[in-house]
Amino acid sequence: MLPGNLEKVMFGVISTPVLYLAVRYQVFTHLVANGPAVAADIAKDLRIDPETTERMLLVLTAFEIIQRTRGGQYSLPEEIRPFVDPDSDRYIGGFVAHLVQETAGRVALLDSYLRHGKDAVDGSDLQPFTSLYRDDHATGRFLKAMWDLSFAPSKELAVLAGLATTTHLIDVGGANGPFAVAALQHSPRLRATVFDLPEVEPHLKETRAAHGLGDRLTFLPGNFFTDELPEGDCIAFGYILSDWPDDACVQLLSKAHRACHDHGRVLIMDRLFDESRQGPLATSAMNLTMHLETQGRHRTADEYIALLTEAGFRQAELHRSNSDKHLIVGHK
User: Fold this and answer.
1) How many CA atoms lie within 13 A of 258 on its CB side?
2) For the O-methyltransferase dimerisation domain, which residue ranges apply (predicted)?
3) d(C-alpha 258, C-alpha 100), whole Å
């Protein structure tokens, strides 16, 4: 019999698409709304095939994503429910869709990367977001994935950031605003500006309207490599620096140092490797997706602090959260 960890990795090629389809066809939504049910009733209500539904539910049961009673009813464990409930801040459906619709299509590149190297396969002038922002639909889908991945952790990170005396937050590459919204909700006197590519602006406007933030949340279009950053007393990089190599990160942090008011701060929010690099699992997996989808990688806290020092920040501190994303603060 295969060791459990090996078995789960081997059959991941089955489990992730099944998870995605359960999200897409609202199987989890049905269980959240209606409670335990047999596969036939779920399939009837959702107008999907009952046998395929049953087989998929059995896979999710074996992976301990859902539970099955002896009577054949399926239900959601309490620890899983918030992550598959579309009304929860911790919902991950958009990110699961991104893994299947975007990331999975690039996994085959690993074979070529191993034989020839990433630069030889992709070209040295790779612009990773050209594909992700190829049209408004693709842009919206990617931003939805990033919101699902980022908003809940951002609530804790906003608390850890200590924004009580901050007046103007610049959220660099802030997308449709998961960290900016969390920060504004936590600090009523704060203003925030999201600085991102022009394609993002309509989606940020939707976020601003949905959360009733008015002129507290503004958008400034630009390219953080070709333009200087807007000035503020706190410059945030939420899950941005892991998209880029070290030299590009120093370039961005140096721009942040110039844009940051005296005695201001820069915030780096990202997944961190343990110093041993033996995990966490999500960081290791996402480190590989960074290789597939961007030019970046995940780092240890000390590596980020070294980048801050090179960019001119003379004091840095690490604040670990209860999630898989943490905060490093650099002081000007």
Assistant:
1) 10
2) 9-75
3) 40
pLDDT digits (tens, 9 = 90+) for 106-127: 999 999 999 999 989 988 655 6
Could you give the angle at which helices 39-46 and 50-62 cross, rounded to 10 degrees? 120
Long-range contacts of 187-192 (CB under 8 A, 24+ apart): 187/158, 187/163, 190/163, 190/166, 190/216, 191/167, 191/215, 191/216, 191/217, 191/218, 192/168, 192/216, 192/217, 192/218
What whole-number distance in Å separates Cα of residue 268 and Cα of residue 253? 10
Q: What is the CATH number of the domain that holds 23?
A: 1.10.10.10
Task: State pLDDT tens for residues 18-39.
Answer: 999 999 999 999 999 999 999 9
Which pTM does this prediction carry?
0.91
Of 73, 84, 91, residue with least CA distance to 23: 84
Q: Which domain holds residue 70?
A: 4-84
Q: Kindly state whether residues 48 and 141 are assigned to the same domain.
A: no
Query: Do residue 104 and residue 77 come from a single domain?
Result: no
pLDDT digits (tens, 9 = 90+) for 191-205: 999 999 999 999 999
For residue 160, the one-letter residue type is L
Measure the CA–CA gap between 197 and 132, rounded to whole angstroms.
12
Task: Give dist(CA 86, CA 81) in Å, integer.
Answer: 10
State which H helix or E strand residue 194 sits in. strand 191-196
